[in-house]
Design goal:
This protein is an alpha/beta fold and 181 residues long. The chain folds into two domains: 38 residues, no CATH class; 136 residues, Lipoprotein like domain (Double Stranded RNA Binding Domain). Strands 1, 2, 3, 4, 5 and 6 form a six-stranded mixed β-sheet that branches. The N and C termini lie far apart (49 Å).
């Protein structure tokens, strides 16, 4: 009798736990249709990616290195792909920086110094399969922005603001690499 009670309790607890997780009765295509999936967020069939240094068509020098470095680190951290040289890669991510803009958001009343700046970058990028030449993802006029505080008390240097902007752009580009649902 105690054994039967234990088995019944285990089955009931499993059903309750499964229902609480939102997976009870859903498997395979049903779970995918309901919005639940254990699939990777990124397209399957690729194992490696080469990241080219972005062409810089602006007068802001050095930002192309920050963006490329941020992209490599973001891809290594968030995706299942190994970053390799283009000779051994299956795919390649390349792009061009087409605009970098600084917009004054506000000034200090007494001194007139700029207190807050919005730094924006616009890029065109393409992720393609090197084996077939097929474009996996392509975006034109893709923008990212980040705020900066160049005046006191913060005194953020322009290089730090550009670095933060590169990080923001890299996160957004890698998010665009996700597979379509």
């Amino acid at each position: 009798m105690n054994l039967l009670r234990g088995i019944l309790f285990a089955v009931l607890a499993g059903a309750v736990f499964g229902a609480a997780c939102g997976c009870a009765g859903k498997s395979g295509a049903e779970a995918d249709a309901a919005g639940y999936s254990a699939r990777s967020l990124y397209p399957a069939g690729y194992r490696s990616i080469a990241v080219s240094i972005f062409d810089n068509r602006t007068f802001v020098t050095g930002i192309e290195r920050d963006i490329t470095d941020a992209l490599i680190k973001e891809i290594q951290t968030r995706t299942p792909y190994a970053v390799t040289r283009s000779e051994s890669a299956e795919t390649e991510l390349s792009g061009a920086i087409v605009a970098v803009e600084k917009t004054r958001l506000n000034r200090a009343r007494g001194s007139g110094l700029v207190r807050e700046v919005l730094l924006s970058v616009t890029v065109d990028f393409q992720w393609r399969d090197l084996r077939t030449g097929k474009v996996i993802v392509e975006r034109k006029e893709f923008s990212a922005s980040d705020e900066s505080m160049p005046s006191r008390p913060f005194g953020e240097r322009p290089e730090i603001a550009e670095y933060g902007l590169a990080q923001t752009l890299a996160r957004q580009i890698v998010a665009e690499m996700r597979d379509q649902w």
